Amino acid sequence: MPKKTSPVRAVLLAEQLPAHLARSIIEERIRNAILDGSLPTGTAVRQQELATLYGVSRMPVREALRQLEAQGLLNVVQHKGAVVAPLITDDAAETYSLRILLEAEALRLSVPRLESQDFNTAERAIAQLELEEDFTAMARLNREFHMALYGKAANGRLLRLIDAGLEEEERFLRFNLHDMGLGRTSQDDHRQLLAAAREGDVPSAVGLLTQHLQRGLHAVSSYLTQQTHKA
After folding, report:
1. 72: number of CA atoms within 13 Å, CB side?
2. If you ran DSSP here, which 8-state letter would residue 88 be given?
3. Measured between alpha carbons, how far is 84 from 162 in angstroms, rounded to an integer?
4. What residues does each domain of the chain span?
5. CB neighbourhood size of 231 (10 A)
6. Which CATH number does the domain 7-84 belong to among 3.70.10.10, 3.30.565.10, 1.10.10.10, 1.50.10.20?
7. pLDDT in tens, 27-46
8. Within 13 Å, how many C-alpha atoms sit on residue 13's CB side?
9. CB 31, CB 72: distance < 8 Å
10. pLDDT band for position 112 (cuts 50, 70, 90)
11. Cβ neighbours for 196, distance < 8 A, ≥ 6 positions apart
12. Digit-coded pLDDT (tens) for 129-146
């Protein structure tokens, strides 16, 4: 009987990587495979297998996996090592509440510094969202819209935390938007938020963002509750 190919080896092609680029390349390739669903939740991602696959020592692999764990894409499980993290965890409500605080602060800092190109980027994302039918693209465009409005906040650590949260949400939405029935529901929210930001009305923009994210929290929580009852 032929030896079964592991999920990681089936997705990631073997090749020799330059030692000085190994960590960043391995991190990027695993991240992309997780985000596009090629490596599903629960898949074991083993250091030695990756080191062998790419012809490098375990050190750059270990660093790449640590970065992915910090980004919430991998979990370390006893006796199994690194595994692909769930699309969304049981503490989704707490995570969303934290996101509301972080994103509201980023918007507050960013709105006074936004320029026409930032507004145009957000406007294009909305226009594409209204036409898009591919759920993967919709999740990506949603993230682009929000980061266009947050991007001028002069706090790099805050923006990195927010981007990680949006990336986690993007990964969840691309696989669940259809079942959640959320395809076209948020564009009015987005347009009102963009209009307030264009006017430089920080309190209104922050209020609209908070309402928008609270609706998202309700939708995600309701969906997870339904899935629990089905199980």
Report:
1. 20
2. S
3. 21
4. 7-84, 92-230
5. 5
6. 1.10.10.10
7. 999 988 887 778 888 899 99
8. 1
9. no
10. very high
11. 204, 205, 208
12. 988 877 778 888 989 999
- Mention every residue, 6+ apart, whose C-beta is less than 8 A from residue 100: 209, 210, 213, 214, 217
Rounded alpha-carbon distances, angstroms, from residue 75 to 44, 113, 152, 203: 10, 37, 31, 38
At a CB cut-off of 8 Å and minimum separation 6, what does 27 contact?
Answer: 63, 64, 67, 68
Judge whether 9 and 27 are in contact, CB under 8 Å. no
| Of 69-78, 83-92, 120-129, 205-214, the least confident | 83-92
**Does the structural domain 92-230 have CATH classification 1.10.150.910?**
no
| Identity at 137, one-letter amino acid code | A
pTM score of the predicted model: 0.67
Alpha carbon separation from 83 to 57, 58, 112, 153 (Å, rounded): 20, 17, 42, 33
